[in-house]
């Protein structure tokens, strides 16, 4: 597949890394010559210097032979015009990133058809949705949904005093055999392990569980976790993300306070939110925040435009008693060190936005996809092809590629947690966790039409 990307910002770079690692033909357009030269040295991509909203530049960069066109510059106008300019070419899929909430309104674009856009994404909306999901499953540090929300992938951290620390998966399984789940991964010191029965979980491990949403309370009880919608959330940063999160939390009847340093923005928040308490306070004025009760909040959500402010503000709040923090981080290279500092959940806008694009552009037989933060793993929901290889075969006889594990099966719209004896057939959807090394093998395995 030939992919033309306009914009070498964080999202554009992440997409170039992702698609080029999969062996796709990637062309990147940007006006920053130095950045393009650096990326061309690091990645197996072609680059083209110029304005992505120029018909001449697009033509010279090969828009006529492009399958997928993605415009993700920092300018809404450039992204929309670039997609519009590409309309006269036979491009299969066009995607644009749009920040303006006014432009995102369904009737203001008139909408996607006018610009020839198949998918409009908003990093701010995507971040807000991800934060709300994590607030609803408050013990988890990572979450993804499959099978139209019936199946959850949840990441948890194993504490020092966890009752299962030092136990093998087989030992854990014998404790409560009636609770259905699949532990699809253990991330230990940055290394992803696809666990088997003899593998142990250790303090500090990040474990990923695939469960049915209806079984969440039972699985969390078994593992000693306890998620609930919090009573109070303190939001640091009243920009677009903070505002969108607050708006959704108001519908969940959660007590909300928002700290925002800009007075004009505070006035906007006060006028457009019905129940949230808006505070004109600097995010690092910990004394003022303590007076407003940040230490008693169940969760702090730090979403200012400054990584430093988000990190320091969250650490100060946790030091004074805040139970949990969700932190927005723009610098992707900061992520590995934040666990050690005591940051509970970190979210990268570039990864959240890029994952939306990746989910959309996967082949038709892949229903959904999620990447696992700080790891080399992915989870996909894939439709079993019409082939004798997959016709009424037990999972234990399927000979899945090494580095891959099946976490759930969906048949006739109903999800279940499988065992080795579970029989699959063409048309089923499988939720599969796999490491980067196994990605190509998994793809080839389910592309097979062998009889």
CATH superfamily of the largest domain: NAD(P)-binding Rossmann-like Domain
CATH topology of the largest domain: Rossmann fold
Could you tell me the mean pLDDT?
Answer: 86
The strand order across the widest sheet is 3-2-1-4-5-6
Q: What structural class do helix, strand and pairing data support?
A: alpha/beta
Number of helices: 16
**Total number of strands:** 24
Strand content: 25-35%
Q: What's the CATH C level of the largest domain?
A: Alpha Beta
The total domain count is: 4
Write down the overall geometry: globular
- Our measurement of the CA-to-CA distance between the termini, rounded to an integer number of angstroms, reads 26 Å
Description:
A six-stranded parallel sheet has the order 3-2-1-4-5-6. It has a six-stranded parallel sheet with strand order 14-13-12-15-16-17, with helices on both faces. A five-stranded antiparallel sheet has the order 7-8-11-9-10. The chain has four domains: 2-121, 3-Layer(aba) Sandwich (Rossmann fold), CATH 3.40.50; 148-223, Alpha-Beta Plaits; 232-351, NAD(P)-binding Rossmann-like Domain (Rossmann fold, 3-Layer(aba) Sandwich); 362-447, Alpha-Beta Plaits (2-Layer Sandwich), CATH 3.30.70.1450. Helix 1 crosses helix 15 (349-361) and helix 7 (123-136) crosses helix 10 (240-251). With 451 residues, it is of the alpha/beta class. The chain is 32% helix and 26% strand. The relative contact order is 0.10.
């Amino acid at each position: 597949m030939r992919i033309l990307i306009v914009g070498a910002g964080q999202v554009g770079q992440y997409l170039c890394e992702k698609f080029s690692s999969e062996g796709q033909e990637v062309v990147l357009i940007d006006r920053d010559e130095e950045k393009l030269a650096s990326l061309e040295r690091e990645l197996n991509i072609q680059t083209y210097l110029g304005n992505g909203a120029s018909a001449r530049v697009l033509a010279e960069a090969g828009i006529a032979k492009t399958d997928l066109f993605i415009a993700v510059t920092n300018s809404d106008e450039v992204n929309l015009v670039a997609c519009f300019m590409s309309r006269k070419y036979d491009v299969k899929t066009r995607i644009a990133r749009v920040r303006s909430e006014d432009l995102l309104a369904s009737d203001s674009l008139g909408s996607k058809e006018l610009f020839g856009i198949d998918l409009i994404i908003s990093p701010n909306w995507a971040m807000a949705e991800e934060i709300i999901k994590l607030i609803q499953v408050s013990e988890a540090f990572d979450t993804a949904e499959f099978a139209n929300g019936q199946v959850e992938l949840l990441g948890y951290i194993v504490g020092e005093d966890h009752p299962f620390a030092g136990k093998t998966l087989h030992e854990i399984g014998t404790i409560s055999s009636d609770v259905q789940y699949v532990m699809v991964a253990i991330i230990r010191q940055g290394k992803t392990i696809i666990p088997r029965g003899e593998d142990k979980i250790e303090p500090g491990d990040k474990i990923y569980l695939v469960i049915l949403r209806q079984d969440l309370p039972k699985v969390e009880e078994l593992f000693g976790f306890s998620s609930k919608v919090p009573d109070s959330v303190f939001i640091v940063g009243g920009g677009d993300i903070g505002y969108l999160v607050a708006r959704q939390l108001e519908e969940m009847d959660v007590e909300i306070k928002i700290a925002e340093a800009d007075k004009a923005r505070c006035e906007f928040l006060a006028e457009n939110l019905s129940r949230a308490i808006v505070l004109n306070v600097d995010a690092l004025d910990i004394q003022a925040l303590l007076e407003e009760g940040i230490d008693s909040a169940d969760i702090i959500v730090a979403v200012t435009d400054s990584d430093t402010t988000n990190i320091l503000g969250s650490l100060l709040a946790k030091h004074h008693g805040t139970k949990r923090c969700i932190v927005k981080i723009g610098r992707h290279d900061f992520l590995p060190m934040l666990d050690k500092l005591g940051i509970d959940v970190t979210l990268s806008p570039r990864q959240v936005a890029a994952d939306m694009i990746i989910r959309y552009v996967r082949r038709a037989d892949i229903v959904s996809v999620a990447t696992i933060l700080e790891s080399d793993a992915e989870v996909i929901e894939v439709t079993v092809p019409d082939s004798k290889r997959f016709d009424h075969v037990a999972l234990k006889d399927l000979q899945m590629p090494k580095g891959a594990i099946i976490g759930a099966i969906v048949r006739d719209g109903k999800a279940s947690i499988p065992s080795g004896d579970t029989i699959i057939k063409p048309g089923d959807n499988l939720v599969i966790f796999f490491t980067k090394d196994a990605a190509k093998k998994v793809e080839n395995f389910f592309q097979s039409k062998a009889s």
